[in-house]
Structure formats: C-alpha cells, structure tokens
TrEMBL record:
The keyword Transcription regulation does not apply. Keywords: Cytokine, Isomerase, Secreted. PANTHER family: D-DOPACHROME DECARBOXYLASE (PTHR11954), MACROPHAGE MIGRATION INHIBITORY FACTOR (PTHR11954:SF6). Its main location: secreted. It catalyses: 3-phenylpyruvate = enol-phenylpyruvate; L-dopachrome = 5,6-dihydroxyindole-2-carboxylate. The keyword Zinc does not apply. It holds the Pfam family MIF. Belongs to the MIF family. It comes from the Eukaryota. It is an enzyme of class 5 (isomerase). Its EC number is 5.3.2.1, 5.3.3.12. This is L-dopachrome isomerase.
Amino acid sequence: MPCLTILTNVPRSKIPTDFVNKIMPLLSRVVGKEIDKFTCIISGDCQVSFGGESTKPGAVATLESIGNLNPQQNRVIVKELSDFLDKEINVKPDRFFLSLYDVPSSNIGRFGDTSEARLKLSIN
C-alpha cells in the first residue's frame, strides 16, 4: 500500500480539486503498482521554508512503499513528481524535497492487520 504525503505552503484554494486523481496514474506508473493500492494526501497552507525563504511555493513529501523503491527507480520517481508539482501547483524542483521509504510489510497496517500477516494468509 504505497502512500504519498505532500505538505505545501501553496494555499488550498490554489491546489486543483482533482490533484490526487491526476497524480494517481503517475504514481502507479513510476512506482509500478496498481492504482487501487495507492493512498495520496496533499495538505496546503502549511508553513514551509527552504533556506529561510518561505514566501515562494515549496513542498516536502514522503513516499512509502513495500518494495519497488531502489536507487535507479527513485531517480525516476523524484523527476516525475518534481515535474508534476511544478506543472500543477507551481512548486519548482529546487523547492521540493521528497523522502522515499521502502517499508517492510510488517510495518504497514490496513484492514485491521499488518500487510505481512495478510500476505502469509493469502499464501497458505
């Protein structure tokens, strides 16, 4: 269950209402997982500063996934997400910071259980 969380100082009123729907196909393509596995959250009106500058649009984000993250793939993901944020909410690549985490399935919970437990049940 990959999850992208974006915090930005862009006003909520300037974030397209269909932002999360538009980013989902991109996430699915660059991470290599089905769209129905993704969660995306964007929160506007946050206080964000890059090098002491907080008046220009900026964003910080985390992408967590069970697998499909590695140094080569991460470069593609960062580039694609940077381009998308520039186009959709005017956050330039030099004002976007993304942390990527390849998370063990035992550290992800959904449906009242961890992914690891559900994977074991589906195998048996």
